[in-house]
Amino acid sequence: MLTPTTYRTLWPVLASAVLAELPPEIASRLKTGRQPVRHGTYGHHIGQIWDRHENDLLPKAHFLYCVVLNNPARGSATTGYFHAWFNLTRIYRDRAAIVHRLTADLRKIPFPGYNVDLHERALSIGQDFNWPASPENTLARLVPAISTLIARVHPVIAPVIDSLALHTERDDAARPAAAGALGPRNQSDVRSSSRAVPATWHQEILATQKHHCVTCGGDLRALGHHIDHIVPFSRGGTSHRENLQALCPPCNLAKGNR
């Protein structure tokens, strides 16, 4: 059986092989994680591929392609799965129009042999599988299936990503003029207009909360954590320190944009 250690070695080879199979206009847009990351809630190990043009309005952590080594302790029927995963609650501009567009366009594409799950909170298209015993068999089994999935899905996703990237560029260009400034935005401007949270703040917030989820009180060192906007960013909340808190992933996903 494939182990997390073996998967860390295998992932760069698998990711490179997938990109090599894709049309150049798609492959040139994509980035891959250097190593699989461990899911804080389920303990799965996830290799990730995302579009390099994603930004705060469509963050890569919730809009990507995943290749997963299941945690055997979760009792899964198979040892792995891969899918295109789009968390629709994490689209931070024109959400209703984009969700309608994505679901309508993706329903037009045939995905024989893939599991297709399109609902109001997320889109998932992929396959469950058992990891082959050898690296050679892994590449032969997975590379065609994953590259076919991306080649069909990404032409639908790319225009959405580009439209939101254009929104961000226009906002950035207009903001200094609106503020009467000629120079770069100051830190307060950034915290008001960007959903991003500085990496150094994570540990500060966790320490302030003594590593416990604000909602359920669970130990975030065991459960993993999300940094949540108390007043959601999509509802006008900012990324200033006083509007941030740490929640366990289930509580944060349950909260949504409320």
Characterization of this structure:
- The protein has 258 residues and is an alpha+beta fold.
- The protein folds into 2 domains: 4-158, no CATH class; 195-255, no CATH class.
- Helix content is 41%, strand content 18%.
- The chain has 8 helices and 9 strands.
- The strands form 2 sheets. Strands 1, 2, 3, 4, 5, 6 and 7 form a 7-stranded antiparallel beta sheet that branches.
- α1 crosses α4 (135-178).
- The longest helix is centred in the middle third of the chain and has 44 residues, at 135-178.
- It starts with a helix and ends with a helix.
- The model is unreliable at 174-186 (pLDDT under 50).
Blueprint (SSEs and pairs):
Blueprint lengths: L3 H18 L2 H4 L2 E3 L4 E2 L6 E7 L11 E7 L10 E8 L7 H13 L7 E4 L3 E8 L5 H44 L8 H7 L5 H10 L11 H4 L2 E4 L14 E4 L1 H7 L3
Antiparallel strand pairs: 1-3, 2-3, 3-4, 4-5, 5-7, 6-7, 8-9
Order of helices and strands: HHEEEEEHEEHHHHEEH
Principal-axes geometry comes out as globular
Mean pLDDT: 85
Largest sheet descriptor: 7 strands, antiparallel
Note the gap between the termini: 42 Å
Number of strands: 9
Percent range for β-strand residues: 15-25%
Total count of domains: 2
Q: Give the C-alpha Rg.
A: 20 Å
Helix amount = 40-55%
- The computed structural class is alpha+beta
**How is the quaternary structure best described?**
single chain
Report the uncertain regions: 174-186
- Helical region count? 8
Compact description:
The chain has helices spanning 4-21, 24-27, 95-107, 135-178, 187-193, 199-208, 220-223, 249-255; strands at residues 30-32, 37-38, 45-51, 63-69, 80-87, 115-118, 122-129, 226-229, 244-247.
